[in-house]
Write a structure and sequence with these properties.
354 residues; alpha/beta; TIM Barrel; Type Iii Antifreeze Protein Isoform Hplc 12; 2 domains; two-stranded antiparallel sheet; elongated; PseI/NeuA/B-like_N; transferase; SAF_PseI/NeuA/NeuB; EC 2.5.1.97
Length: 354
Amino acid sequence: MSQNPHENIRIGDVEVGPNAEPYIIAEMSGNHDGSLEKALDIVRMAAEQGAHAIKLQTYTADTITIDVKTDDFKISSGHELWADRYLYDLYEEAHTPWEWHEPIFALAKELGIHAFSSPFDPTAVDFLEQFDVPAYKIASSEIVDLPLIRHAASKGKPIIISTGMASLGEINAAVEAARSVGNDKIVVLACTANYPADPSESNLRGIPVMRDALGTLIGYSDHTMGIGAAVASVALGAVLVEKHVTLSREGGGVDSAFSSEPEELNQLVSQSKVAWQCLGEPRIGARAQEKEGLRFRRSLYVVEDVRAGDVVTAENVRSIRPANGLAPDTFSTLEGRTFTRDAAKGTPMSWELV
C-alpha cells in the first residue's frame, strides 16, 4: 500500500506529518570538534532548546572514502569552507568515533530526545541497530547508493532521504528502493547541498510538487543561515526540518560556519510550530475567535431621536458600529422614507421602522 502524504507516520513515539507540529532534527555533524564532552553538550543544548531529535553521522574515513591524494579526492579550490582539503583528511577530522555513539544515545534517552544517525555504508547500519534507533537518514550524496537505501529500509524504521543535487528520477529511484523492501515510512527532504546555501537557491515551491509526484511526506534539510527558509518550508508543507547546530559558530567545528547556535535553534522550534499552526484548514470565513469582532461590524442606526412621520435622512440614520441594524448598503432604499414610529438615538434600523 502506498504511503498517504496527507497522513502522519511515527518516528519513535512522535507523530510526524501534516497533522502534527514540525519535527525538528538538530544535526551535530562534525561540530563536536573531536571532543566527546562537546558532543554531549550539543545533545544537552538540543534538548534544552526543544528539538525532537539529535542526529549524528556514522562513518569513518575508511568507510566513506580511501586515503588517496589525487585531484579526484580533493575538494575544489573555490570551496567556501573546505577548499583544497582531501576527502580522507576531512572525514578523519569530522567523523564521530563509533565508541561515542553509546554515551551520546544514552544521554539523549535520559533527556527525552530522539537520537539517530546517517549511516554511510551497510556496516554503519548494522552497528546502529544495536541502539534501536527510531529512524535512518540517507545523506544527499548517498541517494544514488540504492543498495545502502535498501539495507537501511529493510530494518523497518522510517527512512529520511535528503535530495541535494538529485534529479526527480534519482529521488524516485531512492524512494522505490525503500519501498521495494516493504518500507513505506518515508520522508523526502528538499535540500540544497551547498554549505552555506544561498536562500535564493532553495526553490521551496518544489515541496508540494515533490509531495504530489512521490506520494511521500516532504521535509526540508536547511543549510541556509538563519531560520527564514526553514519556517517558509513549513508553510509550503514541510513536516520535518533538519538543521546543523553548534554551541557557538566561533567555537570551531567543520560545519560551524553555517550551523545554528542555541537561540537560533530555539527560534526554529518555536517559529516553525507557529507557521504550522497558521496553516489551519483550507476554508474561508469567520473564525470562532472572531465572534466578538462580528458584533462590531458597521450597520445602520438611528443617530438622533426621531418621531413618527420624520423622513429618513443622512443626518438621522448613519452607518456606525455595532452590527445589529440593517446593512449599510440598504440606506439608498431607506432614504426619503418616513418613520412609522418614534425611535430613540441608538436604535438599530429595521424595516419595521419605516
